[in-house]
Write a structure and sequence with these properties.
The chain has about 190 residues and is of the alpha/beta class. The chain is about 40% helix and about 15% strand. The relative contact order is 0.17.
């Protein structure tokens, strides 16, 4: 007996009319980048997550990079990332000039281990990027994060306090900063 790994026919059949209408609108408009469909997506997504603005980008790497740039994270900064996550998280940190600091996962959940985050905090830590893996939500390392936000040795500048930022899950990313939402999707139609 062969058990299919993933049968996409039933959900595709259920969504077929809407998908067909969406890609026809895109094809008929001639706007494969930007355009009304993207504007509509951005407005609808922003409303769905309760923010005023949303910027659609091509992928999670771009979304994370923009969030890090918006937070002023760059050269000389450190960002704690899961040691076992997708490379886009590490690349986003590297592309803004910061240094990714790997954190080993919790052996029970395979997500970022909040207990290990505290040991990795330095005066240069500016952000923690947990990612949700294997259909399990990452537990925000709140105790480490709280300690880091109140941790203020004299050599630590105010801008060095870490920020909690969420990484991509599945095909969509939403990270809010300054009341704006940066979103990535694998498909806009």
């Amino acid at each position: 007996m062969q058990v299919p790994l993933l049968d996409l026919k039933p959900p595709t059949a259920e969504l077929r009319a809407g998908l067909d209408a969406a890609y026809r609108r895109v094809l008929d408009s001639g706007w494969f980048l930007l355009g009304r469909e993207l504007e509509a997506f951005e407005a609808e997504f922003a409303a769905s997550v309760g923010t005023r603005h949303c910027v659609g980008v091509a992928n999670g790497l771009e979304a994370l990079q923009l969030v890090l740039l918006a937070r002023g994270i760059g050269p000389g900064d450190e960002v704690i990332v899961p040691a076992n996550g997708y490379i886009a998280t590490w690349l986003a940190v590297s592309q803004v000039g910061a240094r990714p600091v790997p954190c080993e996962p919790d052996p029970r959940t395979y997500n970022l281990d909040p207990a290990r985050v505290a040991a990795l905090l330095t005066p240069h830590t500016r952000a923690i990027l947990p990612i949700h893996l294997y259909a399990r939500s990452a537990t925000p390392p709140r105790s480490a994060f709280t300690r880091a936000r109140t941790w203020a040795p004299s050599r630590m500048q105010a801008r060095s306090r870490p920020t909690m930022t969420r990484s991509p899950t599945a095909s969509a990313t939403c990270a809010t900063t300054a009341r704006r939402c940066v979103t990535s999707t694998s498909s806009r139609v």
